[in-house]
């Protein structure tokens, strides 16, 4: 049966165009109920014959009650296609979660294509809103199920929409709210998962403040979207993402493109219920209110952000201007700042997630089994306390739990939320590791059977077809080898370096041909696209692809034949590229070395075997290439990468130190960079509008200000007019201190923006520039086992070489942009999870090992200073005044970055070396920290 659906759309030229699409209706779409005599023979039998009721849920139930739906107590659920489509349009994260439930064979969730069924399809009615049309479609589908299955099972429509429920009952359907249905299950713990309606936020008893005055209006109402849109257009409001200061959760920053600067937001009232990561509309305050007071080290009692953390690698980890103080020397009065100050007037897009933490200690209420109100304290101190109600308080005390936010009313000091699940005991390493993963939205679910079904049969071996493929070159005779970190099993890159008769070198970078096994549109491809990247924790890896691919089929291990995608150059001895070619290939690596092994070979003058000679030739070329890059303006930055020695039995850290970078590391890096640049040039030439590239925006003057202030205070003049000027300045930043230059480079690294993926059609060519590499073009090609971006680029390169068709997704600009956005989000989260894992293991290591060591002052505050500990790569505060004392008698000299006690010769300056004591303490329940004190 054929239906015609028509709609109008606006073209890029501004014309209105009517679009008519054919919509096919069928009568062979089955109900999914196991005993159904009509459908059972052909249907997927997901709905149980013994079900007390089959649940048909509406869109809002899925959007707002996903935590409840994921509980195993909720089964035999029908998800209508109209509901899934609406959820996908409104919240992609929830859509992915409900989709995972529907594809999980252990759960009884059945997708019914009501929009394609002849008996359940509904036509649009004149004057009917899309929401009303979808509600009607849900009721029609529920009625069809009721008529189709008759008396064999009860059909129950679950909705919190009063109007939808009323109409359903009037039409003879069984309908209940979420809460009434859950109560009927007689499992009180499930009620904790039910999202509290917004109105409940007003009437629910506050867990901490019982005074009547709490019901006064605390926050301003958010402006309606119509007013926000008009205000943004007129320049009254400014849009941007809110980032809460990691040092001070009562201060936030909104980067605004409309004014080309960051807007400072002071205080929770001006944040107006916005969470970190929300897209907000901001109104600027009058200029006479653009004040910034002294910057202090946060006290634990003030619920400030964690004091000890890894040194951030970008400005996104801290405010763009986290300098010491903005006050004049010795003055306690605030000064007028050049930075605009504003307040949040509306939320354009929420960034509410599930949060990990624990309940704030409180007296246990009398009796048991009733509803108790409690405050949840997130481990991430940028997140405000969240008020929840629970019927299982005694089971949640001293546990790490997950809580989701439901609402935040203007009358409430705290947002309201609901309990999701318990992770485990506070302090348990496995529990705390899971917290890290949840906080950073890392997907740790086992790969589904559908994903695993996409893998090739094992053991995998090279086939005659692979060798006969005219698009694949046989390079098994070439001396190929790999150099990776010790113990690496997912080897996705290898090299060769052959001396040619003309005195030049043939240099090849060979990358695992992952796209030979991961095909577009398959469950395996969709899973990899969603995960985005592998995640590396201390002693643990969460894979983007299943291990049979990462550690076997695709891994370029020694002495086995493997498929590769190769970039091969002819280079002169001066590292000039004569020619470049790209080919799919077959290789057989002769050696898989660690960086230490490769370095030892190059350094041992007694070794003159061919493999060692190849390594030395590559290293000679790499040094020239590296110098050439630096001459162009590429930055040599530094970060404190921490390395742990882990006990093989307990998995606890035995030792901690800074990871050592060798020439072998730099050699491999140089050729990977060169391959990425070559591939970027190739794909952009063929696909100027849909290439996936990587850019690194130049840091702003405000971002570089902390570095310039620090450098100036020690007599160092840094030229930041360009990356080349900064690179030369960093090279000349030397004194008698051997660690001085590295420390300056670490501080420079912290001022950088994040490099990001983007679709070439979204930006102009001048915006493609990679500041850190001083490269006009760059992409990621060399790690497809670990990064989905590289998988995308492999497909682009194959299409550019005309050995594969370009997948249709590359013709969809918005979808490709969405892929880039997800890759940036996943890459960022993987970085944060990795750092959090290092922090966790640092706490575990020092818990039983109080230590005295040297530290360097990197930031001056009014009540102390921040130090960096070179030996362990961590940073933390040193207090000069008693807790709560805002500065005392100490005077800050902003120009010279020095804090001095008047009347004494006691002073401390930035970059000064101090001796400190390090010890783990617990100033607040469930919040251990590494405390640093002067010796």
UniProtKB/TrEMBL annotation:
GO terms for biological process: rRNA processing. Residues 299-339 are annotated as: Disordered. It comes from the Eukaryota. Residues 472-803 form the RNB domain. GO terms for molecular function: exonuclease activity; RNA binding. Residues 322-339 have a biased composition (Low complexity). It is found in: Nucleus. InterPro entries: Dis3_CSD2, NA-bd_OB-fold, PIN-like_dom_sf, PIN_dom, RNase_II/R, RNase_II/R_CS, RNR_Ribonuclease, Rrp44_CSD1. Residues 53-166 form the PIN domain. Its cofactor is Mg(2+). One of its GO terms (cellular component) is exosome (RNase complex). Belongs to the RNR ribonuclease family. PANTHER family: EXOSOME COMPLEX EXONUCLEASE RRP44, RIBONUCLEASE. This is Exosome complex exonuclease RRP44 homolog A. It comes from Urochloa decumbens.
